[in-house]
Input
Amino acid sequence: MENKEKQNFDLPENAFRELKDGEEYEPVMKSGQTYREVSPWSVTWGILMAVLFSQPQPIWD
Output
């Protein structure tokens, strides 16, 4: 398995303003690349959120 370093991605400068004529915006997530939708991180957060929000609520009289 390759050792990949975490990369910090900053939004390009033109992400917060209207594009000029002929200028193109290059998104952080490229359309030609495939990204994993399920990872240990997403599964862990999904389980934690399910446990947190599925707890019974107290009934107030």
Notes: The CA atoms of residues 11 and 28 lie 7 Å apart. The longest helix spans residues 40-53.
